[in-house]
Specification:
- 70% of the residues lie in helices and 0% in strands.
- The chain is built from seven helices and no strands.
Length: 138
């Protein structure tokens, strides 16, 4: 898979004004105001500067998903899950992204893990039931 975020980005090129935290907060504000594509651009800079940060990667994955960049979101959520397999939200996001790109088996697997970790979160269960029904129809 091709990564939406280049971990070896040339850090000598000028980026947006501010520091990583500024990019993160502005990116989250953009996402909250419905400008997911702009959020992706800003959060990608934050990830390039702080590639090991799961919270910055999660923000990027959320923005990618909202922007309809499901393959990129899947890859970004997968990065988090690979390093933090007990992160229920990353499992959920990975499952939703997999479903959007048509990988129903992976969707069910990751959504089931999210539900097992957090059975109290209703929308996890709703998403799992939907993915299982789609898989049954396939």
């Amino acid at each position: 898979m091709t990564s939406w975020v280049d971990d070896s980005a040339d850090r000598s090129r000028p980026g947006p004004a501010g520091e990583v935290y500024d990019w993160y907060t502005r990116g989250m504000a953009l996402l909250g105001h419905g400008d997911a594509n702009a959020a992706v651009q800003l959060l990608a800079h934050a990830v390039a500067a702080e590639p090991a940060s799961p919270s910055v990667r999660e923000a990027l994955a959320r923005a990618q998903f909202t922007a309809g960049q499901y393959g990129a979101a899947r890859e970004t959520f997968a990065w988090i899950v690979d390093r933090h397999p007990t992160d229920d939200y990353a499992q959920f996001g990975l499952g939703l992204s997999a479903r959007k790109i048509g990988d129903l088996r992976a969707a069910v697997e990751h959504l089931a893990l999210a539900v097992a970790m957090r059975p109290d979160i209703r929308h996890y269960g709703v998403a799992l039931r939907g993915a299982r029904a789609a898989l049954a129809r396939a």
